[in-house]
Amino acid sequence: MFAIAIHGGAGTLSRDDMTSAQEKEYRAGLDEALNAGYTVLARDGTSLDATVVAVRVLEDNPLFNAGRGAVLSRDGVAELDASLMDGRTLSAGAVTGLQHVKNPIELARLVMEKSPHVMLVGAGAEEFAKSQGVDMVPNDYFRTPSRQRQLQRALRGALARENELEAFGTVGAVALDLKGDLAAATSTGGTTGKRWGRVGDSPIIGAGTYANNASCAVSATGHGEYFIRTVVAHDICARVEYLKVPLATAVDTVLNGRMKELGGNGGVIAIDTSGEIALEFNTEGMFRGLRTSQGRHEVAIYR
Fold first, then answer.
1. Which helix (H) or strand (E) holds 261?
2. What integer pLDDT is reported at residue 12 of this predicted model?
3. H helix runs in 69-135, sequence order
4. What sign has the CA pseudo-torsion 18, 297, 91, 212?
5. pLDDT at 162
6. pLDDT digit string, tens, across residues 243-272
7. C-alpha–C-alpha distance, residues 206 and 297, integer Å
8. Cβ partners under 8 Å of residue 244, min gap 6
């Protein structure tokens, strides 16, 4: 048994704002990432490889808030974050505040595998990236016209309308491979108009990303501050491991329980060692998909 699930962000995804052509484009982008990760697993690749490949495809797609399509800070600069975790070894890598790394998820993996650290930040992270031969690009590479328009609207205090879909911030993947190992990966551009070096949950191990073969793998998306405060990803895995509750129950309890009570919105994707998958959100929509070796293949945006 092997399986993979992905997300492309959860948040304000009004049906009224999405044309049929846009929906088709988003679904195609999700399916491309899903199939890329699934192909790795089908060839007896590792869950870690599969999640990184899937997230990299989403980072390269300007539709999603990560990599090429990252939202812009108040100063009009893209600042990128990413993390991943290996459920077999509990090794993890994370990066935040990147401005020139083409694929942040690849650098997060190098932090995990080629450094003694878990998280690197800003200029130091990019110095490490250069030492590892990572693809670097000018910040203009990330500054797409749609994200520039979105920033201008945010600065004017306007709502994101007129076909400028506003999704709270991330892409992510979780996977189970043929050896029974789990992995999770997450990447983001953060929130539109962010200031002061704001960092959300995506690069925080235990908040936006967590994987442990003793329980499950989780990648989150939404209001990052709430996911950090309630350590969503780790809490879900802890409930599965210690309380022995089903994955879907753990996800629902954490996402729609105390986090929502605090005012947090978003979603998570999760998978356990039996291949059970949960794709849950408390927002209007979440870009998501799953594919398993048992024949399930689904891509969805709304409920």
1. helix 259-262
2. 66
3. 104-114, 122-131
4. positive
5. 39
6. 999 999 999 999 999 898 999 999 999 999
7. 28
8. none
Q: Which two tokens stand for residue 303?
A: 């409920």
Flag residues of the chain having pLDDT under 50: 159-164, 167
Residues with catalytic roles: 170
For residues 169 and 189, the answer to whether their CB atoms sit within 8 Å is yes
Domain ranges of the chain: 3-300
For residue range 48-83, what is the model confidence (pLDDT) as tens digits?
Answer: 999 999 999 999 999 999 999 999 999 999 999 999
User: Whole-angstrom Cα distance, residue 270 to residue 275?
Assistant: 10
**148-152 contacts: CB < 8 A, separation 24 or more?**
148/72, 148/76, 150/71, 150/72, 150/192, 151/71, 151/72, 151/74, 151/76, 151/192, 151/193
Topology (CATH level 3) of domain 3-300: Glutamine Phosphoribosylpyrophosphate, subunit 1, domain 1 (3.60.20)
With CA atoms as reference, report the closest residue to 29 among 165, 200, 220, 224. 165
The whole-model pTM stands at 0.95
> CA-CA distance, 70 to 81, in Å (whole number)?
10
Residue 261 to residue 107: CA distance in whole angstroms: 35
With tokens 């290996």, the residue in question is 86
